[in-house]
Structures are given as C-alpha cells and as structure tokens.
C-alpha cells in the first residue's frame, strides 16, 4: 500500500473528486508567494513507490512491487536496467512481491482483500496463472523464506487457530505442505536454521522486554536462551549458513541494540557488532561470504557490509545518500539489491555488483514533472520537553517562509506506539511544504531508535507525557521566526491519529486544527477486542497501554471518545470502512459527539479500505482534501 512517509498504511475518501480538483486550490484560499515553480498535488502524486527485491534463478532479473499502475503490483526488471515487465494486474488489492523461485521464473507474492490485512500467499505460475497457496476466509499468511537447497519454502499461517502462528514447509514443485511447528500464541517463529534442525522463537512480555527460545525439532523441546533481569529486548536475527550459531539482537545492559552470536554446540555467547545506534537487522548471503547489517542512525537507515572470511567491512562506493531498505543478496553472492530513499529522492531500486563494484539504478520513481531542487530537505532538530527530556524531530521549511511572511505549521505525529519519523521521501510532506506549511515530524518519547530508556518512557503514560511532548513541539515551532504561532495544527495517522484526538480533547486551546487519520478514540474497547492474531502481544500491549480488566478508569481517562465534549477546534477525521484495527462504529460515535459541540468536523469514510490507502488515486484525493481543510481552517484562521 502507499504511504505518507511514516504513515503506517493509508486512506481513501468517500466522495470521488473531479480530476480538476487535483490541480486547483480551494476557491477563496489566499496563498503566500510560493517557489518559482508551482506544482499541483496531482504532479506530486505521480511519484511511484517501490518495495522489495528478489533475484531470478539466473540472476538476470530482479522482482519488486510498484504502484505505478495506481495499485501495488509485481514487476520484474533486468539487473542491467531497462523496461520492467508487469507480472500481476490487480486493479484494487495490493499485490506485494515475496520472491522468485530459485530454479525457474515462478513468483511468490501476497495479496489481501479490501485492506482487511488478511493477506494470502500466491504463486504466479510459468503460464501466468495465479494460485492461492493459503486459501480460506478468516486467516492470514506470510512468506518465511526458502530452504537452503531451494527445494522448499516456508509459510506462516494462523488458519488452524486465529490466535496462533503455525510454520509449514511447502514443496517447491508440488506445493504439498508439512506442518513444522504448531504455534501456542506466545512463542512466535523468528528464524529457522538452514539444516531445519532448529527454530528460534520470540516471546514478548512488553514492547521493550522480550526473550528468545530455541526449539529443537528432533526432541520437540524448547530451551530459554536469554533469561535476564530487568527490561531488555532480545530478538532472533538469523542463523549462520552452517547452522552452527544463532545471531541475536539485544539491548540488555545498554541503551542500543547490538549483535551477539550464540554458538549452538557450546552455548557460548560473544559480541559481534555494537554501535551507538540500534542495529535493525543482520543477515548472511547463502554461502556466508557476506553479512549485511542495517542500522537506525538518528532517523536514517544505513548499511554495513562485512566480508566474513576477511573479517572486515567492505566499502560501497557510489551509493547515494539516503535510507537503505529491502536488501536482498543473490544466491550466487555476486549481487546485492536494495532501495535508497532520500528526502528529495523517492525510494529507488539499485543493484550492486561485488565483483565489478558497479552500481545500477533500476527504477526512476520521482514524478516526471518534479525537479529535486524544488523539493525540501528535512533538518534534524531537537527541543526540550516539559521535563527537560530532549525530543528529536525532523523539520521541513517551505522555501517561501520568512520572518516577513510567516507560515502556518503542522506538528506531525507518527504511528505506533513505538514508531518513528525518519529521513526519506514523502509526497504528502512535500505537498504541504510546497504549499506553504512548515512541518515538524516529532519523535515523541516512546519512539524507537533513540535508546531503550527513551522507547520505554511512554509506558502507561499515553495521553500524558508523550502528548505533552507534542504540545512542546508546538511551542518550538511558535518560537521559529518564520512560523505564525497562532496557526499551528496537529496531524497524524493510526497512533498519531489518537494523539491528534487527545491533543484536541486534553489540550483544547493549544492547536488551531486537527487531522486524524484512522486514530483510536477508545483504548478500553480496542484493548478488550484485540484481533486473535494479536494474542501473542496482548500482555505486552497491556503493559504498554493499560489492562482493560484492572485499569478501566485510567483507559477511560486517556480515551478521547469519553471526552469529546472538550473538543472545540476544527477536525478532519479519516476512517477506513474495513479497518480491522479501528472499528468504524467507534469513529462514528466520536464524530457525532464532536459535532454536538457545534465544532466543524469533516468526516471521510474510506469505503473499500482498511487501515490505509489502496491506491495512488486515493492518496491524491485525500491529500487534496486535507490541503483544502487546512487552507480553510488553518491558513485563514486569525
């Protein structure tokens, strides 16, 4: 699905706008002098999003997903560059590439229905037909990787019991499957050893405290590997290709996540890689020549490539500045595919050849009408919150904003709890900034990437200290010489949408307007009615947010639905009709309650979607509506 930068997934409006609306501002809106080049929303939304990477069996093509057709579909492109080939042709539901088969040109991909988040795993056969490998109506499935020899692949599915994730082995030729591990709702598969003798399992006690267990298939015994005191995160990263060691990610005894190696035969544990930032992942190439580590470095994802035999890092000349994602290594270990995403350059797919050291860009995703010099680079900033805690944020300043022509501004709150606003391209942010709005994407306490103390600082504090960080963000903006402090709004998706509603209810005089995109308004019912597939996280979410059985009063206190009478600033609410996380009925009740206050409320129901956008058309239409709402209620406010 498409996204607004850190927007978790996205939106569709109930009223289809005429295409003219995409290129025209709202009638009567007065805009400040803009950049020399003026772009329409439609031109910004012509930018393409691409996801994933997998090499073909002959390593001459790369598989990926793109929304260039308006909906995510699966494409293949030569490693030397050239015209991509479209492999799936969905017109409504997102098709997300999983992998090429190691021996031929069959393709695995996932697809859900109407944004219901019940994705199934499909195979595209050599004749172009599509076959659902995980049929059914009420379950979800995901690809879990290939066997070392390529004769089988692994799939996670909760079809047996919606609460449990089971691991199956599928024969690559016949698709016959065998149950490898039956989930119990607590221990979730994290990594499978190449020799199929061991399965690493993860168990979460809270969102910042977790453990790893080792399951042996021969004995069907489970062993606890990471017993510890206090709060610490332990995750399974990968097994080495020889199945002799399990690589772990942990922040036990430190603020940031590092890599450790657990030797299976001896139980010996040793440090592998430690930095002053969180390690996000580490993986091996098929034969173990390379180990690739991704690092969350102050809101930007960086890449570290290690030559395992030589025991040293490898330089990667020519890789452009930006966030790295979607890393994939060819089975022959010669090539690496990945995405690079910058503030003024949308994510593009690249292939790096280790032998020739040649870097080839395979996609061109920036809208054809846009010029990078007319886009805005974010600035990493920090401000002090009410209690002295330093809060990181990304600041986007319009080119036309000056002390003489002060601009309206937006505090953007990411999804979560536990998400992060990071460096990278956002068509939506660029639209807002291009049209004269300053944007501050705040990483309030509880955001990931800034150490485990910062991450845990929002536990049982939701609607209070993290929200106060957003209030302080508004003060920070108001102190900038080019911002009009009387015209600052707040906008956010998912958990960020909750923060918008909470800000308007609990600090009703701080923000001039609010834009809530599928935010939770009632934590009490949300935690009582968690979907079955979230069972493994139930206790962790209770520790993070509150237990509805024992902390009902507290959850009512922080839920905007029960305080809607306090909201008196204009509000835009966006809701997916099929949203499995935020039921429409609860949002209906909130909108009705706020409207009783005589407050202007625009309510967009997304009829064919869940917790996010399904198409670029939807994203463009919604962006126009948001811009129109802000022009009317924020730009024109006194």
UniProtKB/TrEMBL annotation:
Domain spans labelled Peptidase S9A N-terminal: 100-363
Function field: This enzyme catalyzes the hydrolysis of the N-terminal peptide bond of an N-acetylated peptide to generate an N-acetylated amino acid and a peptide with a free N-terminus. It preferentially cleaves off Ac-Ala, Ac-Met and Ac-Ser. Also, involved in the degradation of oxidized and glycated proteins.
InterPro entries the record matches: 6-blade_b-propeller_TolB-like, AB_hydrolase_fold, Pept_S9_AS, Pept_S9A_N, Peptidase_S9_cat, Peptidase_S9A
One Pfam family here: Peptidase_S9_N
Domain Peptidase S9 prolyl oligopeptidase catalytic: 426-635
Membrane spanning residue stretches: none
Originating organism: Myxococcus virescens
Domain of life: Bacteria
Stored SUPFAM superfamilies: alpha/beta-Hydrolases (SSF53474), DPP6 N-terminal domain-like (SSF82171)
Gene Ontology molecular function terms on file: aminopeptidase activity; serine-type endopeptidase activity
GO biological process: proteolysis
Family the UniProt entry places it in: Belongs to the peptidase S9A family.
PANTHER family given in the database record: DIPEPTIDYL PEPTIDASE FAMILY MEMBER 6, SERINE PEPTIDASE S9 FAMILY MEMBER
Keyword terms: Acetylation, Aminopeptidase, Hydrolase, Protease, Serine protease, Signal
UniProt name for this protein: Acyl-peptide hydrolase
UniProt entry tagged with the keyword Hydrolase: yes
Residues making up the signal peptide according to the UniProt record: 1-21
